[in-house]
Amino acid sequence: MNDIVIVGGGLTAASAAKTLRTEGFDGGIRIIAAEDHNPYLRPPLSKEYLQGKAGLDEVYIEKDDWYAANNVQVDRGTTVTALHPVDHEVETAAGRIHYDKLLLATGCSPRTLPIPGSDLDGVMTLRTLDDSDRLKAELSGGGKNVVLIGAGWIGLEIASSATQLGNTVTVLERDPVPLGVVLGDELGTYFTEYQRSKGVTIRPSVNITGITGTDGAVSGVALEGGETVPADLVLIGVGVVPNVSLAKDAGLDVQNGITTDAALHTSAPDIFAAGDVAFSLHPVIGTHIRSEHWANALNSGEVVAKSMLGQSVVHDMIPYFYTDQFDLGMEYSGYGTLTKGADVVYRGDPKSNEFIAFWVADGKVVAGMNVNVWDVNEAVQGIITRGNTVDPARLADPSIPLEEL
Ligand SMILES: Cc1cc2nc3c(=O)[nH]c(=O)nc-3n(C[C@H](O)[C@H](O)[C@H](O)COP(=O)(O)OP(=O)(O)OC[C@H]3O[C@@H](n4cnc5c(N)ncnc54)[C@H](O)[C@@H]3O)c2cc1C
């Protein structure tokens, strides 16, 4: 095997390329990246970078000279327009490129809202470094009425950053409890109240009918019932959709993402998928999941590189993500699909903003979240992995080491 082509220039692509080299692969590695950037990290784009507390050095994954030094070609600003699995070729505007093994790491794109006014000036989404630069330019002077549509993780992180930059922020959410679908109503309410305590207005259970404008620029968000919430800037954060069209058009199996087995093979020979776009069989829980988080991009990039080299590996990490909002930092590990109907057991009092929450289903911990409690997430993962039946009283008791559960 000589040539590995990676479509997409995000963290998954970078992680795979780095691992291919550290595992000794000395053939060609070509990353084809639609954005005109070397691979970079997205988490800072809604947090430290947006607030001006981190620079580009903390955003780019490797310095520019790493790619030449490691003989990794990055075709920046180049979009793959079609796959030809039988010919082992991908197509760009410049022609066809051969691969021996192909990695699809095309990530996700922001979901759009099909409502009137969503194309007005001042209506934005946040996915890319360029988006973050534009948003930073709007927010950094402060004094704006910012309306966020959607109270998901990225929406709440932007609410935190925009507020800290001196703007007035209103978050509009369709669901009755922001984050309720992910965390359950109790902890969703916890995050809602935390944001409110920092000055963010959060309005759940609202239906948006359109975005209003004056002379082509946004001026407000219209709600069912006739009210218009004034806005100088509207940020739409209603989730993301996996970039599956290349795979779908080429006849690969696609469900909630590009379907893979636990070793990240797609349904087509020599084509692999990893990161946000992959809908992968998780060998521990026996179902397919798609994870839209940083740690999954990093880890699945490593696993898929080894898989492409023919090593016997599976992508079996416990899903993990984190968020930072104002002075609250949180890490979550676990199987979200198993938390529906689970009991939540607390170690520490949420009112203190320092606690661990465990989701317990059938007597076993299936997920855990530490809020402003550090260096425990590995131990939380240990409990999930061991799968012991736990006594809720011991789980809640801070004098019992997590390692003993
Ligand atoms: C603002 C923001 C904040 C985040 N914060 C957190 C956080 O706090 N914690 C956390 O766990 N996760 C966070 N995430 C999620 C995390 O960044 C993603 O999980 C991660 O970026 C996924 O990496 P990826 O390489 O799989 O996909 P992506 O980062 O989406 O990269 C895919 C790349 O492929 C390119 N591409 C797509 N199609 C083509 C094509 N046909 N040809 C060429 N290139 C193509 C895209 O342009 C894109 O650059 C955040 C994401 C965002 C946007």
Strand content: 25-35%
In round numbers, the mean pLDDT is 97
Ligands in the model, by name, code or SMILES, are: flavin-adenine dinucleotide
Count of helical segments?
11
Termini distance? 47 Å
Rg, rounded, reads 22 Å
Number of strands: 27
Structural class: alpha/beta
* Shape designation: globular
- Give the low-confidence spans: none
- Give the % helix: 10-25%
Summarize the biggest pleated sheet: 5 strands, parallel
For the largest sheet, list the strands in their spatial order: 3-2-1-7-20
Characterise the protein shown here.
It is a single chain. Helix content is 24%, strand content 30%. The protein is α/β, with parallel strands linked by helices and 405 residues long. Strands 3-2-1-7-20 form a 5-stranded parallel sheet. A 5-stranded parallel sheet has the order 9-16-10-11-12. The chain has a 5-stranded antiparallel sheet with strand order 23-24-27-26-25. The radius of gyration is 22 Å and the shape is globular. Bound molecules: flavin-adenine dinucleotide.
Question: What's the arrangement of secondary structure elements?
Answer:
Blueprint: E1 3-7, H1 11-22, E2 28-33, H2 48-51, H3 64-69, E3 72-76, E4 82-84, E5 89-92, E6 95-98, E7 101-104, E8 108-110, E9 123-124, H4 129-139, E10 145-149, H5 153-164, E11 168-172, H6 180-183, H7 185-197, E12 201-203, E13 208-214, E14 217-223, E15 228-230, E16 233-236, E17 240-242, H8 245-249, E18 254-255, E19 257-260, E20 271-273, E21 278-281, E22 288-289, H9 294-308, E23 320-325, E24 328-334, E25 343-347, E26 355-361, E27 364-371, H10 377-386, H11 392-396
Parallel strand pairs: 1-2, 1-7, 2-3, 7-20, 9-16, 10-11, 10-16, 11-12, 19-21
Antiparallel strand pairs: 4-5, 5-6, 8-17, 13-14, 14-15, 18-19, 21-22, 23-24, 24-27, 25-26, 26-27
Helix pairs in contact: 1-9
The chain binds flavin-adenine dinucleotide (FAD).
